[in-house]
From TrEMBL:
Protein name: carnosine N-methyltransferase
Organism: Eremothecium sinecaudum
Any GO MF annotation of the entry: carnosine N-methyltransferase activity
Membrane-spanning intervals of the chain: none
One biological process term in Gene Ontology: methylation
Keywords: Methyltransferase, S-adenosyl-L-methionine, Transferase
EC number: 2.1.1.22
Pfam families assigned: CARME
Family indicated by similarity: Belongs to the carnosine N-methyltransferase family.
Length: 392
């Protein structure tokens, strides 16, 4: 691990450690102060409110304990020898992630979102059953980039495939490692994912609902098989081609990475992108990478919307071109990270006419939720997802 990787990891650990105070400061204290600021007359109009605030406080503490237990395991797994006082300080974005990850936990690891996960899983099962006999599946290599908290990886391993997840975010990697390798029993933990949102609740219970995770015991489900692995880093950096892609924060020009990309080329039979392709700031890099990592005849299966993550991002990043043999760089410049939000039609056109993919199945506008499994909330967002299977 490089020094900057260690610093980023520590910064993420620090953010999880800081969740308790951050969440109390951001969500609980302002409301407690507001309650105290009411006149006695108004306090008596809502006599249950003090008790409700106590419960919000308690729920934050439960969430914090979940993170703190994960952290005590993580410092061992990741061999962190510095004391928490020496860890790099988290940014506000790091802290916000410690909050949003609770929705991701619900999406991937709760019974409540089973129906949501099945939208893709049922389609995958049907395709796999018609394509790969069970007897050969352990030799079929599947890659799941943007694997999040690892649930889809587990589901695919359970179907018998040799499956590698890939994930960029240390927030995701730390929690997924805990869920995948922590030996947790089914429904062992309760988290309170909805306490960070105060609007749109039908009643107080709706906000205070606890969700049990994980809905399966990974150890029992996988029975100790050796088919699951996870890579840490940017998808294009690890699996992309050594040509056509510019050096940037997502794609490096070190001899090690060039070698790793060379090794990964044409190594996978299936790439499954689930709620992933719109995380690209250059979707052509993603298509290049999918094409590069697939064996001839391999399949790209996609499910998700085109809600480009960088669409409103005002930042610029430094890029440059480099010689893939010597590593010599040229054309260093600053480029906007937004601005290449290809439509579905564009993506299909490029993939088929320029990369030679053949579409073998396609559905558009499949409605799917994403981790907001609170049936008692009055707001409910759904995504219009595109699904396809293409053959290289
Ligand atoms: C919207 S989430 C989807 C997670 C999971 N596939 C699911 O369906 O729940 C997108 C994930 O992609 C990860 N990600 C974003 N850019 C990435 C990159 N360049 N390489 C690898 N992972 C990336 C994010 O950290 C995040 O975990």
């Amino acid at each position: 691990m490089t020094n900057s990787d260690s610093a980023a990891l520590e910064q993420t650990l620090s953010s999880f450690l800081g969740y308790r105070e951050y969440a109390l400061d951001t969500y609980w204290r302002p409301r407690f102060k507001r309650w105290q600021s009411l006149t006695e007359y108004q306090q008596q109009l809502i006599p249950w409110y003090a008790d409700y605030l106590d419960q919000v406080h308690e729920a934050v503490i439960c969430n914090a304990v979940f993170y703190e237990e994960m952290l005590s395991q993580a410092v061992i797994d990741w061999e962190i020898d510095k004391s928490p006082m020496q860890w790099s300080k988290p940014t506000i974005t790091d802290m916000e992630k410690t909050v949003s990850i609770f929705s991701q936990l619900v999406r991937e690891w709760s019974q409540e979102c089973n129906h949501e996960r099945l939208v893709l899983l049922k389609r995958l099962e049907s395709f796999f059953n018609s394509t790969y006999p069970k007897s050969i599946r352990s030799n079929v290599n599947v890659l799941v980039p943007g694997a999040g908290l690892g649930r889809l990886v587990v589901d695919i391993v359970k179907l018998g495939f040799n499956t590698e997840g890939n994930e960029l975010s240390y927030h995701m990697l730390l929690i997924s490692r805990y869920l995948l390798n922590g030996g947790l029993q089914k429904n062992q933990l309760t988290i309170y994912p909805f306490i960070h949102i105060f609007g749109n609740h039908l009643n107080r219970e709706s906000q205070l609902t606890g969700v049990n995770i994980p809905d399966v015991s990974v150890a029992d489900e996988l029975g100790g098989n050796n088919l699951m692995s996870m890579s840490a880093g940017s998808f294009v950096d690890i699996y992309g081609p050594n040509i056509h892609i510019k050096q940037s924060g997502y794609y490096s020009n070190t001899p090690e990475m060039r070698l790793q990309r060379g090794t990964n080329s044409k190594s996978k039979d299936v790439v499954i992108t689930c709620f992933f392709i719109d995380t690209a700031n250059n979707i052509l890099d993603y298509i290049e990478t999918i094409h590069n990592v697939l064996k001839p005849g391999g399949y790209w299966i996609n499910f998700g919307p085109l809600l480009y993550h960088f669409e409103n991002d005002v930042h610029e990043e430094q890029t440059c071109e480099f010689d893939s043999l010597t590593g010599a760089i040229s054309n260093v410049r600053l480029e906007p990270v937004k601005g290449l939000e290809l439509s579905l039609e564009d993506i299909l056109l490029v993939s088929t006419t320029k990369f030679g993919f053949i579409i073998i199945d396609q559905e558009i506008r499949i409605e799917s939720g994403y981790g907001k499994a609170n049936s008692r909330s009055t707001s409910d967002s759904k995504y219009q997802c595109n699904y396809w299977i293409m053959r290289k």
